[in-house]
Specification:
Elements lengths: L2 E3 L7 H12 L1 H7 L9 H5 L13 E3 L5 H12 L5 H20 L22 H12 L6 E4 L5 H11 L3 E4 L12 E3 L14 E3 L3 H11 L10
Parallel strand pairs: 1-2, 3-4
Antiparallel strand pairs: 5-6
Helix pairs in contact: 4-5, 4-7, 5-6
Length: 227
């Protein structure tokens, strides 16, 4: 079982259709499973490792942001005797922020997926039950955290994995330096940027710097370059 944590409604039907097609056409699946060929498809290579009669379960789409606020809320719960009061406050705010993010990025689309629409945190009577369930039955029982093209969630998902002491796998992508000005690396000898306030450190601005930052912060995690 798995979940998708994303403020946007997950679009998973195309993956399920691809699975159905490949299972119905084994010769096509075998051809697409060969690495190095123009037709290579990772999904085709994965299918033989699954039982032929196993139905793929659609992950639950939990529409929240994976960010520092989430990490700190979980940390507070674990450090303060499993008190739910602050977690419930976080959950209400997180639900509102996720809704605002989704609507703001779909302002040219008036038809947001109603099947996965947010509940109004102010009018939903079971919001506290949802908050408790997600924390105690989902987050605290995670066994693996994966981030593929996670954008702003990259560092937070790694922090969450470290906090929960579970393995993670992430493919860092965009850096967003203006949104994370706290990220710093030791300045190169003789190349200190005089415009930086701290002349012993430099801002993380490029993808390679971001990778160096993450490798330093999560030194115990194995890194595979150019996978």
């Amino acid at each position: 079982q798995s979940i998708i944590a994303d403020p946007f409604a997950a679009q998973q039907q195309h993956i399920l259709r691809s699975v159905a097609f490949l299972r119905a056409h084994p010769e096509e699946q075998a051809q697409r499973a060969v690495p190095g060929l123009p037709t290579y498809q990772p999904l085709a290579a994965l299918l033989p490792r699954l039982p032929a009669d196993e139905l793929l379960q659609t992950p639950r789409n939990v529409r929240i942001l994976v960010d520092e606020a989430l990490v700190q809320a979980v940390r507070h719960y674990l450090d303060h005797g499993h008190c739910l009061e602050r977690w419930r406050v976080f959950w209400r705010d997180a639900t509102r922020r996720a809704m605002k993010t989704a609507v703001g990025n779909n302002k040219n689309n008036n038809n947001i997926n109603n099947n996965n629409s947010h509940k109004d945190p102010e009018s939903s009577s079971d919001i506290d039950d949802d908050a408790k369930y997600f924390l105690t039955h989902v987050l605290l029982k995670l066994r693996l955290i994966v981030g593929f093209h996670p954008d702003q969630a990259t560092e937070a998902l790694m922090d969450l994995a470290a906090l929960l002491q579970v393995p993670f796998c992430a493919v860092p992508c965009c850096v967003f330096p203006s949104e994370f000005p706290h990220r710093r690396l030791p300045a190169d000898d003789g190349n200190n940027n005089q415009n930086e306030k701290n002349n012993t450190q430099r801002r993380v601005r490029t993808h390679s710097e971001f990778m160096d930052y993450l490798k330093h912060k999560f030194a115990a995690a194995p890194v595979q370059e150019d996978a």
